[in-house]
Amino acid sequence: MWAFPELPMPLLVNLIGSLLGLVATLTLIPAFRGHFIAARLCGQDLNKSSRQQIPESQGVISGAVFLIILFCFIPFPFLNCFVEEQCKAFPHHEFVALIGALLAICCMIFLGFADDVLNLRWRHKLLLPTAASLPLLMVYFTNFGNTTIVVPKPLRPLLGLHLDLGILYYVYMGLLAVFCTNAINILAGINGLEAGQSLVISASIIVFNLVELEGDCRDDHVFSLYFMIPFFFTTLGLLYHNWYPSRVFVGDTFCYFAGMTFAVVGILGHFSKTMLLFFMPQVFNFVYSLPQLLHIIPCPRHRMPRSWAVLSPSPFGTSSSDSSTMSESPDPPSFASQPPDILTQADLFQTKIASWPRPLPPFILLQILSSAFPFPCDDRHPGPFLPSNDY
């Protein structure tokens, strides 16, 4: 039966600092609200009738609190080395790994905030994580340098038990950093979604690390907990303000900060393949979003569809029982004959909603798949066409 492992003293200190970070995040976000609005780092919540200015880029606050916690925490894993009798040699490799991880995360927070301010293009967003991951890859090269992986069981008859990837392993780690940062950024657009998914992933990693503390790789999982515990609590404070209806927006700063934090613990904690299992919803969303990312179908800003902020019946028709409870869909309002002083708040909202071309229907993808992978079908007796529910 599994028992909760005994936590070392540095982890207890880290937990206390993380709880203080939760309080700090909850307090600082509303305190800096006016500063962000004054600096025009604000926006309006799409698809809502309220036109209230909401501060953006609040991930920089949770990221700053996260960095302060870990900067103050740096001496605690090495306290034994301050007493000569208890330290045979200073663990320079652990110290370099800790500093290198903080450097990569700090660079990503800075680049993410620059993206929020400058509104960079997508091709630039692919380069930013690559640049920020270079310190991380150098730390891995100098401290570990191991590029051998354990081959999955189905492939072992062909490749053997172990496989040395060489330089390709560093390419994989760089791509992992790029994927983690942009995967959080792509699965966004709903209040609390970015912070919520990051909170779930971090909680899953914490549970995984705690379970593995009794294994052979204890030090690697303790290192991961040094980062995941503060990240969980600072993200929890951010999610409190970002939950629907959102009072703040996390911005690209938080997406990059969260993704790089996950990449750091996955690479330096030596469980990058397990990390991808925690990212399965993001992997599915990435594959599903490829037609938009490759501009095969239109990709509006924030991938938000056209909306007039009103409920309307389906364009495919309704049953008699449903039609009595629904009104006809109103046309887009025209305000040419109305003076500006009598426009309502909802009217102003409707005039600002952009319209994008209708995306390709989903059945086109099915047609492409059926053409690529044909299967026998007897269409000589098609039978009657029966309507059905979407089950």
TrEMBL record:
The keyword Transmembrane applies. This is UDP-N-acetylglucosamine--dolichyl-phosphate N-acetylglucosaminephosphotransferase. It is an enzyme of class 2 (transferase). Its main location: endoplasmic reticulum. It is found in: Endoplasmic reticulum membrane. It is a multi-pass membrane protein. GO terms for cellular component: endoplasmic reticulum membrane. Keywords: Endoplasmic reticulum, Glycosyltransferase, Magnesium, Membrane, Metal-binding, Transferase, Transmembrane, Transmembrane helix. It comes from the Eukaryota. The chain crosses the membrane at residues 12-38, 59-79, 95-114, 126-147, 167-188, 195-211, 223-241, 253-271. Belongs to the glycosyltransferase 4 family. GO terms for biological process: dolichol-linked oligosaccharide biosynthetic process. The gene is DPAGT1. Signal peptide: none annotated.
